[in-house]
Amino acid sequence: MSLNPPTEHQLLVFWVGLLVILVAARLLGAVMQRIGQPAVIGELAAGLILGPSALGKLAPYITDWLFPADDVQTGMLFTVGWLGVLFLLVSTGFETDLGLIGRLGRAAVIVSAGSLLVPAIAGFAVGWFLPMAFVGSDTERYIFALFVAAALSISSLPVIAKILSEMGLMRRNFGQLTLAAGMANDVIGWVALGLIAGLAQAGGLKLDKLAFTVVGLIVFFVVAFTVGQRVVDTALKRVRANGGDQLSGMTVVLVTTLSFGVVTQWLHVEAVLGAFIAGVILARSRFAEHELIRPLETMTAAVFAPIFFATAGLRVDLGLLADGETIMWALIVLAIASLSKFLGSILGAQLSFLPLREGAALGVGLNARGALEIVIATVGLSLGVLNDRSYTVIVLMAMATSMAAPPLLRRALSGWEGTPEERQRLDMEAQLASNIVVRGNRILIPTKGDVQSLLAAQVAGLTWPADTAVTLLTAGDASTVDVQAHRDVLFGRAVDHDVVDAPVADAVIHEAVLGYDAIVIGAPTGGETSEYVSEIMRRSPIPVVIVRGAASLNGRLPWAFARALVPVNGSKSAKPALELATQLSSHIGTQLLQLHVSPTPPTRMESLIGERGPDRARHRAILDEAASVADASGARASSILAHDPSPAAGILSTATELGADLIVMSGSSRDNAGIPAVSATIQRVLDG
């Protein structure tokens, strides 16, 4: 085997070219962002300026030195660019919500079909009527028309993803629909390209190659979402069990991405599709967290993606548009490509009973053809299906649609907040993201089949979102443990029951590092906090929620929680309790009693001047802040100001007076040795 590394001069040119591209792309991207446009426009423009369209005309000797017609030089530069699109697509896949797309299933299928078929038909027609001066030599007209149809039908998933991400639209319904349709456009587009390339090369249809690609993709999807998912889950679980170091996590991400990319490239469908599926698989893992992919997202946004979009512009020579016929047909192709994609998307949206405005946004978003269109044009040029004229026309269409999409999308969505259901979902996602305890991830409930853990399961089931999964963990001998009652109170959720042969606290802590929101523990009624609960509190890396039933229940579950009392004092340590209580109230309508206990009664003067007293105003501000949190969650809340030298006594007396059947408290306290412990106030309430 002979390995021929690049020469010193080739390396120098490569590093200088890479530096110039990165600086230009980042600078122009920043300029675009300053004027309210996505950075991708500036990054694409950087390639146009550095390529034959601008710098190549003004100072060709500089362009020839920076980007020489050298296979090694070109290969190194474009390899970095393709790494950029690979990493961009794995990040996009990580943000793709298959559950949401599934709920939008009918719309996703119909919009994808409309956005593909209408442009394909229009593209075939325009390809059929383009003058022979645009058709590659020795190419059959129908093959050329099919190629134009494929070129007009696809959308650029990388460009779409970049635009949606920069505009903060990835989680919108239409954003997920756009990604789903863009993915379908890409898959079908690449399969169609393989078919047309086979026709061009062999002068006829090669069914064996087409069947290999189609069947291979089906097998790939099935294996990826079954065996691949299990392998990724196992790898990420091991990473988290060993401390969750960033290096190991990034290794799993990169190995998964490259492995999937290799498979799809081997199937004659670009590696970017494999990277996208890798991101989806990684995000679906219960052991994944967003921090897993954040370093890759940062590096991609700062380095790789700008280089990729800039290199796409390097290959465009707008000087080929010098004659009037080429300009005229370029405008015709651009108009037909834009209108057909727009109308096809709107048609699909209307057939799916989506709002017209959402259909328009879909049409604008899917119109971005981007660098993948340029790849298709390059393939067509290399096969002789296209010539320099038609290549320039298609590339111009790709660049124009990509640059027009962001401002048009911004205009289409200006002032539109979506449907009430979508706004509710987005508000819930934003709230969960800002929460400390209830964040929508899996929760862990230790159990021996006892009524205390059953009460903990009941409270968790009423507090966490309905789609939050639960793990019931039993340590030691599980032969007599029956958790069916726990499954019943957690009805509708995904519930796992894991059995571990280890001490309870050790088992819980070992499991807690594997991606949970919180540990929810049922504590025995009366007396001090049990030893194993105290040990879990000391060692837990995540929040611990302790649920203890009232002695009067005699081991029975409460019928409901009609009134929940939550003490507030404006401190950070009290926020988790308010969070839990508001979630409970918003889910089942529990009346929330927000109590602030002042240790000193108002003075005579303060009683006379009322709200104008400084202490009274401070107490009211604390209650108002708590009320705003409750209002944002849709909770039923009322504010109460009590006076008692002992906060615990004030809490207990108010709970008795108002008939509260649940008290929710949180605190951050440590004993004399600095070890986390239940605060004195909470312990007094428990004892009371």
The residue ranges in which pLDDT falls below 50 over 5 or more consecutive positions are: none
CATH class of the largest domain: Mainly Alpha
CATH architecture of the largest domain: Up-down Bundle
Strand content: 5-15%
Strand order of the largest sheet: 3-2-1-4-5
Secondary-structure class: alpha/beta
The radius of gyration over CA amounts to: 31 Å
**How many strands, which pairing sense, and closed or not: the largest β-sheet?**
5 strands, parallel
Q: Helicity range of the residues?
A: 55-70%
CATH topology of the largest domain: the name is Na+/H+ antiporter like fold
What is the mean predicted local confidence, pLDDT? 82
Strand segment count: 11
Intertermini distance: 80 Å
* Shape category: elongated
Work out the count of structural domains.
Answer: 4
- Number of helical runs? 28
Please name the defining characteristics of this protein:
688 residues, 5-stranded parallel sheet, Rossmann fold, 4 domains, Na+/H+ antiporter like fold, 28 helices, 4-stranded parallel sheet
Q: Could you please describe the fold and organization of this structure?
A:
The protein is α/β, with parallel strands linked by helices. The protein has four domains: 1-68, no CATH class; 98-312 and 323-418, Na+/H+ antiporter like fold (Up-down Bundle), CATH 1.20.1530.20; 430-559, 3-Layer(aba) Sandwich (Rossmann fold), CATH 3.40.50.620; 560-688, 3-Layer(aba) Sandwich (Rossmann fold). It is 64% helix and 8% strand. The strands form three sheets. It has a five-stranded parallel beta sheet, sandwiched between helices. A four-stranded parallel beta sheet has the order 8-7-6-9, with helices on both faces. Helix 21 links the parallel strand 2 and strand 3. It is elongated, with a radius of gyration of 31 Å. The termini are far apart. The mean pLDDT is 82.
